[in-house]
Please model this.
Amino acid sequence: MQKLLKRTAQVEKQAARRNRTRSKINASDQRRLLIDQQKMVNQTRKELRHSARQALREDWRLGPLAPRRDVGDNAKTYGTVHFRTLQAVDNPLGKWKNWGIGVGDRVCVTGQKERDKGRIGVVSEVTEKAESCKVRGINQVNVPTPAYMKVQGRHEPPVQTTEAPIHLSSVRLVTPLADPSTGILRDVIVNDLTLTPTGQRYISNYLSPETGKPHYIPWPPKEKPEYKDNEVDTLRIDVEQVTWTPTLLRAPMPSGVIDELRNKYSKFRTRHEDAYIEMKESMDEEQKGREQEMRWGGGTPREMLTPVQELNRARAMERKGIEDQDKLTEEVLAGIGEMMVRKGKRLAPKKENMEQRTIQPPPPPPPEPVVQAQTP
Model:
């Protein structure tokens, strides 16, 4: 049985080791995929920027003879932004910062390279892994309508307007604060936003004039999803109806259900039947008996002992018998106890006489002679 348990523990360790190795490989592949996506997005932006600059340079050089570019396939989509440039790629390193901005917050665009710098809007979407957000009505761009949306019977415009993502480092939270001098509320751009370990956010360099403590900014309330009832939905009365009552007279599930959940002969199995456990334990006892028999013969069976091994075994058995004789049995211990009781009663008066004796102190030492000085 111990060998079976050891095998199960070893298999579990091996499976855990394989899972750790597989997770590392998957994380490496995911990191490589994100890096490739980031390279593709950057390459697409670079190509579009290069082609736009080249067209601008050509239009300036040719002047009135410059060709029209809004013709042919680009007649209705000229000037739109490629959809790849709007993808928010996750951080390949798997580490991102919590900027303390959520959906529903009012923010102000403060990035130097942002075209809508200084405008205030409401955050409509936050991508934490990419550290970007979308602000409603800000940084809007035109994108061509995808082909899958141009189905038959629907008249979709060739160009649609959407918000492009903005990095969270280019926006700042806007919240109303009371002026310390006048007490009037006004919108303030928060530059020093601090987060507590519990997720609360406050302004580090501002104290509330009423309490004198840091001013905590609550998170915006989350919109509750709207659920619509359909004909195929299960009624609440059917869900709350009690269809099974537990009892102590029978098991809630049949005893063989574990064989259905896990293979009966699986190497990961840790629960076994009582008969199987008894069989394994009996096999272990038989193995121990065989090992005990082989131990006295130097590791060989009894039928294959040499004369020298038989002699050594006989001497060992004699020594073992002598050692057994030297051991104190219960009868010997009982006889020793009776003898100690009898001797204790016999020596009891002597012990009392010894206690009644008085110990005389030793005689004091003789006094030392005094030597007197003689006068001349």
